[in-house]
C-alpha cells in the first residue's frame, strides 16, 4: 500500500483532492462560524472544533458507505438494442448519479454566489441557538449537507487509481483528515483569503463541473456502454490535473498582477 501512496498518481490526487476539500469547506467554515457565534465567547472555539471533528468522523463513515457501493461492479442488468448496449451495475449508477449531482450542485452554487451571495448565511442566522449542544447539532447537520459533494469529489478523484478499492479509500480518508486539520488550524486565515479572492471558490466549483463530467463518462466506460458501435472510454485523470493546475496558475498570475497594481 505504501508503494501506491507514494506513487505520482496518488500524490497528485491527494494534493488536488485536499485543495478541493479545503475550497469546498469554506462555506462550511462560514456557516459553522455563524452558528458558533451565537454562543458565549468562551464556548465558540469549543463548538467549532468539536463540530469539525464530528464532521470528519461523519465524512469518513460516509466514505466507507459510498466506497462499498462503488465496489459493486458486477452488472445486474444488461440492455441491448440496435444502437445501444449497456451493462448496468451499482458502481456505474453511483458514479453517474454522482456526476449529475456535482454538475447540478456546482452550477447552482455558482449562480447563487453571483446573484444571491447572502441567502444561505441569512437562513443560518435566523435559526435560534441557545446552548453548546444545539450549536454542535446544527454544525453536524450543516456539514452533512456539505459532505455530499465533498465525498463525490473524493470518489471522482480516486476511482480507478488502484484496482483495490481499499487503497483508494485510504487515500480519500487521508485527504479528508488533512483538510479538516487545516480548517481547524487555519479557519480564519483561509476564510479571509477566500473573502478577499472569491474567484478561488468559483474556480473550485468549476473544477467540480469537470469532475462531474468525468464521473459520468467513467460510469459509461465501466458499464461498457456502446453507442452506435462506438465504445465510451474513460478520461485519463492526468487531463483533469493539468486543467486544474493550469487554471490555478492563471489565477495566481492574475492575483500577482492585481496585487502589483
TrEMBL record:
Entry keyword set: Membrane, Transmembrane, Transmembrane helix
Main location: membrane
Organism from which the protein derives: Lacinutrix gracilariae
Subcellular location: Membrane
Lineage, opening ranks: Bacteria, Pseudomonadati, Bacteroidota, Flavobacteriia, Flavobacteriales
Record-stated family: Belongs to the TerC family.
Membrane topology: Multi-pass membrane protein
Protein's name according to its UniProt entry: TerC family protein
Membrane-crossing segments per the record: 12-35, 47-70, 82-104, 135-157, 169-190, 202-219, 239-257
InterPro entries named among the record's database cross-references: Integral_membrane_TerC (IPR005496)
Record flagged with keyword Transmembrane helix: yes
Coiled coil stretches, renumbered: none
